[in-house]
Here is the input.
Amino acid sequence: MEVESKVRLEPGEEDRLASTLKQLAIAPGEPARQRDVYYKERGFRDRVQGPGSYLVRVRYTDAGTTLNMKRLTAQDGVWEETETSVGRGEVAESIIQAIGAEHAVTVAKVRRMATVDDLEVIIDEVDDLGTFLELAVETDDDTAAARAKIDAFLGTLGIAPERVELRGYPTMLLEAQGVKFSVK
Here is the structure.
């Protein structure tokens, strides 16, 4: 399971965050461009997306291409996730389309990432959405402990809990297109 939280950064806030991370000896890596192409079952726009709903993603980066499946759980900000490398993303996309899935949304971003123990500290500049701090922890089953770790780190950064966004970027973009989501 992947447990994640995001915080939209206001103009100028990224510099303050970078300073705080530096004081904590956390240095996000060099910027890397990612293009994530998401697919869903045909007709998904006509139904509320809830627990069990999935997204299939082909992620293109300079380092390679991956195929990923994310499935919504009944907990906000928690996804079941499976991922593998693929040789040619365009072939994976052709297969996904051939079995009847339709393009849902494409998320393009520039990502800088650091890891502190099992906590991923990510700064994303997302096309059409803005700049975000994302914190993520992979866990087998203890989502409460993962959430507590993320929340504690947000507190260390001085970020108020009410600023936390639990939706993923594809969900934010799809909701802007009128797609409905619910964890109930």
